[in-house]
Structures are given as structure tokens and as C-alpha cells.
Design brief:
The protein has 367 residues and is an all-beta fold. The protein has no helices and 30 strands. A 4-stranded antiparallel sheet has the order 4-3-2-30, with no helix packed on it. A 4-stranded antiparallel sheet has the order 5-6-7-8, with no helix packed on it. A 4-stranded antiparallel sheet has the order 10-11-12-13, with no helix packed on it. It is globular.
């Protein structure tokens, strides 16, 4: 499971969202508090199927009953972005202050591991320093977190999950929105939003290789919207990265070759996830100019056929249940229109419903 990433716009000149690198964000204001008003007492132990979201406009993660809404929240650190949950039930949450470790069964924070990298003062906003994409090795022994360093290249930090400490750091691209791991665990992939690339890092030697992914070119540089955001690792080992509801860049990390496949949503795209049968789910955040369509969820079959489900309001990331029947799409996008909830999508019928959940939720996982 993985989760994906973005935050609030940092400065007036950058209100267009994720187009430019920009400043580090504003000084951290008092976080908003997650509204947790369950219709019944929170269970002592967290039930299977509960959702966990990262509250980017707060300092918490929120536990969400997929039918009733929030049941509890736990403080983890300023402006949490992405999160990942291991088979042992521990969640690893990338915040501006470090990687928090949460026991999801008892809903307690166990630790917060500081970054080795200097990211400046703790701030909030889309361009704040600190952890963004985060992933767990298949054997559960390492966590990999992409750390944003304002106005500089990013860093991949490697955490030993037993010792709960950073053991290594590797330079990667700018603003590492997403981090993914090869299915065999041999490589780690950090998607550099502001540098139009994916850095492939060998898990054994930590040797990095920079792979450009720029199906529209790099002409706009930091001011461009046409950059990579999130990736998924397919069964064949290739990475799929959606762009603008128009192009799916399929990166072969062995060769660096990028093939382009057509997409149909015609909207700015962010979060992505794979269903168990290989169906690709992609979040459309809404238009970046007058010719684009509104927010949506693309359901793309392995053969390339697509259905596009309209969504009400901007969204950021997506996860899917183990049976592949339900998707949960977080409402905590960076621009105007983000909201404190999740859209629940029935993938068979296309029916949707809104569910209150956290405080500008970004990363999400099904426990």
C-alpha cells in the first residue's frame, strides 16, 4: 500500500498549484484539528478495512470507518504527506518533522524518526521541506522516504525498521512526490516532480540512475504543469506514470526507454494505484486551463480500455480494496476546492458517495 502526496500552495505567485518549485512554505501555523465524531464509541482495536489518511493541514493521521467516517486520530508531526502500512500493522508516515511510526491496531504513535537531511525550519504548504513519497520494502526491513529539500535536489532516506533509524541517504530528483519499490525489492524508484525524472536506486548498493520521464518535454522547466507526479509498478516491472489525462508514460527502468500510451480523461492527473487484477486507477484533479475537463477517476483496464468516473471537487490520491471492488479517493488537493473527506467509488457500477475524513487528507491506506 502506498500513498501519495501534495499540500497547500505556498506563496501568491504560485497559486497555480504544482507548476513550480517555489518557496518552502509558510511558517507552521497552529494545525487544524481533525473532527472525530463517531456515531458509536471507537473500538479498542482497529477493525480490518478501516482507512488511514494523512491530514496535511494538521499534525495527525485519522482512522476512518468506510461507512460512518472518522473514529479516531493520532498526532504524528507537522503536515503529513504520504504513508505506508506494513503487514505487521505499523504505519510509517512522512511528515515535515520526520517519519512517524504508528501502531494502527492500538492507534498509538510509537516513534518519530528525524531526517538526516537538513530541510530547514519546519513549515507547511505544498513546498514545505520534509518527507513526501514513502514506500516499504517487500520484506518489511526498510522504509524508503523521499525528502524534499526546498530549492534544491531531493534525497531518498533509508530507514531500518527494526532499529528505527536512518541508515543511508541517496540524492534523487527535485520534490520526490512518490516513492515505489520493485516487486522483487531489488530497486527503489523516486519520482522527481520538478526535475522530470525517476531516480532508480539499487537496494543493495544504493547506486542511483537518473531516468528522464518528460512526454511533453521540459521546455517549461519549473513553471510547467506537465511533470511526473505518481507512479505504479506493473506486474511486468515497468512503471506507469499518467500525464494530463492524455498520455501514460510507461518507463522500463532496465533500459530507461519510455513508451507513450493514449489516455482519455483530459484532466490534470495526480494519484495512481493498481487493483489486484492490474487495473490502473488514476485521480484527475481538475482543469489547469479552460480546455480541460473536471475532476475524475480513470479506471484503465490492463488492455488499455478506460472508463472515466466524474468526481465532485478536487482530489489527490487513491487506494483500492483487496477485492478490487472499491476505490477510496482523498479530497485533500493543493488548490482551491480541496475538502476534508474521501470519495468512495464502486468500481463496478461507477456509483460514488462522499465520506468525511480527516483534515485535507492526502495519503491513504486500507488497513
Amino acid at each position: 500500500m502506498r500513498a501519495g502526496l501534495l499540500g497547500a500552495v505556498a506563496v501568491v505567485l504560485l497559486v497555480t498549484g504544482c507548476s513550480a518549485a517555489g518557496a518552502a512554505g509558510s511558517e507552521a501555523p497552529a494545525p487544524r484539528t481533525a473532527s472525530v465524531t463517531p456515531s458509536a464509541p471507537a473500538p479498542e482495536r482497529t477493525p480490518d478495512g478501516t482507512l488511514l489518511v494523512a491530514d496535511f493541514d494538521s499534525d495527525t493521521v485519522t482512522f476512518v470507518d468506510p461507512e460512518r467516517g472518522p473514529i479516531d486520530s493520532v498526532k504524528v508531526g507537522t503536515a503529513p504527506y504520504g504513508l505506508v502500512v506494513g503487514d505487521d500493522g505499523r504505519a510509517w508516515v512522512a511528515t515535515a518533522e520526520g517519519v512517524a511510526v504508528v501502531d494502527t491496531a492500538s492507534r498509538e504513535r510509537l516513534d518519530r524518526i528525524p531526517y538526516d537531511t537538513d530541510t530547514g525550519p519546519v513549515t507547511t504548504g505544498e513546498y514545505r521541506g520534509g518527507g513526501m513519497g514513502i514506500a516499504l520494502a517487500p520484506d518489511g526491513e526498510r522504509v524508503y522516504v523521499g525528502v524534499n529539500v526546498p530549492d534544491a535536489k531531493g534525497v531518498l532516506e533509508v530507514i531500518d525498521t527494526k532499529e528505527r533509524e536512518v541508515t543511508d541517504t541517496v540524492p534523487v530528483g527535485r520534490r520526490p512526490f512518490d516513492v515505489d519499490v520493485a516487486r522483487d525489492g531489488d530497486e527503489v524508484y523516486a519520482t522527481g516532480h520538478d526535475s522530470y525524472d525517476v531516480t532508480a536506486v539499487r537496494a543493495d548498493t544504493l547506486t542511483p540512475r537518473l531516468l528522464e520521464v518528460a512526454p511533453y518535454g521540459t521546455e517549461g522547466d519549473l513553471g510547467s504543469w506537465l511533470k511526473p507526479h505518481y507512479a505504479v509498478v506493473r506486474e511486468d516491472g515497468k512503471l506507469a506514470l499518467p500525464f494530463e489525462g492524455e498520455r501514460l508514460a510507461v518507463l522500463d527502468p532496465r533500459t530507461g526507454d519510455v513508451d507513450i500510451e493514449r489516455m482519455t480523461a483530459n484532466t490534470h492527473q495526480h494519484g495512481a494505484a493498481l487493483a489486484p487484477d492490474g487495473t490502473l486507477l488514476v485521480v484527475g484533479t481538475g482543469p489547469i486551463d479552460g480546455s480541460d475537463k473536471g475532476p475524475s477517476l480513470t479506471i484503465r483496464e490492463p488492455g488499455g480500455a478506460e472508463r472515466v468516473i466524474p468526481l465532485d471537487g478536487s482530489h489527490e490520491d487513491v487506494t483500492v480494496t483487496e477485492d478490487g471492488r472499491t476505490a477510496y479517493v482523498t479530497g485533500g488537493f493543493t488548490r482551491d476546492g480541496s475538502w476534508d473527506g474521501i470519495t468512495v467509488v464502486d468500481l463496478d457500477s461507477g456509483d460514488t458517495r462522499r465520506l468525511p475524513a480527516g483534515v485535507r487528507p492526502l495519503g491513504i491506506a486500507v488497513l
